[in-house]
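yo

u said u wanted the structure for the complex thing, so here. seqs first:
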Amino acid sequence: MSRRLILIRVLAGLVVLLGVNYITWRWLESINWEAWWIAVPLIVAETYSLIDTILFSTTMWRAKEREGPKSAPQGTVDVFITTYNEPVEMVMETARAAKRIAYPHETWILDDGDRTEMAAAARSAGLGYITRTADWQDKPRHAKAGNLNNALFETEGEFLLILDADQIPDPLILHRTLGYFADDPQVALVQTPQWFINVNEADPLGSQAPLFYGPIQQGKDGWNAAFFCGSNAVLRRESLMQLGIVGYVRDVEDSTQRTLRAAEKLLGREARRNQSVPEMHLELRELRQEVTRSRADISQAEPIAEVTYRLRAKIDAASRRLVDNDLATMADDLAAIESLPIQRDAELGTLVVNDVALDALAARELSPLGAVKSVAALLDALRVDRPDEAQPIQPLATISVTEDMATAMQLHGMGWRSVYHHEVLARGLAPEDLQTMLKQRLRWAQGTMQVFLRDNPLAKKGLSGGQRLMYFGTMWSYLSGFAALVYLAAPIIYLTLGVLPVTAWSVDFFARFIPYFLMNQLLFLVVARGIRTWRGQQYSLALFPVWIKACTSSFANVVFKKPLSFVVTRKDGRSGEGLPLREVWPQLTAIVLLVIAFVIGIIRVLVGAGDGTGTLVNTVWVGYDLAALSIIVQAIFYKGPAAYAEEPKGVT
Amino acid sequence: MKLTVTTHEGYAAVRPVGRLTASGAPRLKQEVQKLIESGQPRIVVDLAETEFIDSSGLGALIGGLKAARVAEGDLRLASATDPVKSVLKLTSLDRVLKDYPTAEAAFGNE
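structre next:
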């Protein structure tokens, strides 16, 4: 173990001990219950932050600094450049650089915009060009995940290097990464950092993420939980395809069982309704028994394709027999069957069987033939070839707008391993204005929260304890918007109204809080090792409205099926005109309130109404909040990069 | 991988010989497509001489199943070798597709 790691562990241990000591004392001894309406939110926010610190300490506990792969690079490779609407010239610059990658490979432009000029440019440069096949017509497209899934079936390399349209690769990117797959046949993913060249030293938009593409991914790597970030990564085709197959089987199993249950209900009802017509009653009852038998066969591990094929034949035969008996009432029913209670989630294209509407259909007065036909239609919609999707197999996860993290977690759940290789091997472009940056952050946060709600790592099968905590840690950090609200409100309330959230600003308080606070900062300093993290700290507080919106909109999306408005991040500079004040009104309001509170606080002390210590503590607190929020003001006036950034420190 | 196609009474058989992996998968898919277009959507993939199959190979089987069912036929598997059986089990694809003992038996009951 390196001396640095020992130091990190000592500090991490101390932070957690001091933090637990402080928070326990806060809960038990120092909540001002008379002002519970602010005291309780504050202690909850502080507890949230302590858990965040514990998760961070856990991440750093096993920080892994890899020296590079031992094996020589080997295997066949396809390089994928994903694009949707980026300028053709930008894509071509990346593509030409990709073609120059030294290790033998094939380069493909995956053009989701299906542009003729893009196709022509690719052809004249001798590059592969892939757009969606005809199968995708009128089917959910699944954004970038769909683009990659489509290309997987058009190519055959053992490994895939995935690059965003703006990420210019280093010629040695494959030489430096492919060996990991030979070192360990269970490795499915090698992720390298994202580094932006259109960002100056000050980086007012906080685009560089040196803490994430560094200590945090290295820490996750130690727990075998470094995750896929969408670009600058190499993936093993076999692992993705396996994911696709397993996902297909699970989807077919679930949807078949649900459909058969619904069919059983429908036929049972129709059989009862037609008791007066013996031959129809008999036919429907027999068919219902067939469905029941099919369900039993499937539970007894009979292959689903067999069972549904047989059932389908029986239903077809029955409906042919019923046609003769029942022509008159048919026309009415067809309209009802048209509106089958199966809907697609607008955002993600997942198939949703609406149980309420299904009951309504079952309750409708259908003729027996209508009933049989609607059962046939139900089976049709959910048969084994997954007709609701363009491809029955979807290797990259489609449960989230950020397919990368979701895919990595599923790979980990199946026992595959991942590698974080800490060396800048591709250089790209960051958003150059506040609006674009805000949209990008919102999308990342929304995607992460979708995974949290749809495929929670704490409950997911196949993950190790450490992996659960690592994924959970990333999701937990996106809840910080709610805590930030409290951290902004508490000092304002104290300075203006004199309401104390704690029993006293006493020696007892400082003796516990200050060591915890300082140790936390020290751990951060040692972990960061000279890289600048203040920008990240500022934005983690200053983007509180974004984090809150991400939480509420993903909740509405997953629970109430409300669509998220999906946005593709612009990579070609600025969008829109004028100052983006509307996007950041909550932050600007907070700044104004903090300044007013500061002035009132001083006046209260001067007129003898305020307590000296309390005011001092809270003005320092307001000062910190203002320092963090001030970045928003800088970002509003930011006019794009003046000079290109230097290479990050500590990256080889 | 070598691929032989034979037609029989009531079905056609596709026989991949060797390793069915990412490089052979597109060819299998094409053969299945050709059979369907020529009016024979009842297809048996005879795995008796398939030494190994990877997930891309399985992907081609599922793609073929989809195409066959859309054409109101079916795609069935027969005589899988042990290594192929173990991949079917590992990916739980054996929950969807049945492995018939012989190609003749696959559509034998119809």
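The interface with chain B takes residues 153, 156-158, 237-238, 240-242, 244-246, 248-250, 252-253, 301-306, 309, 383-387, 391-393 of chain A (CB under 8 Å). The two ends of chain A are 20 Å apart (CA to CA).
cya
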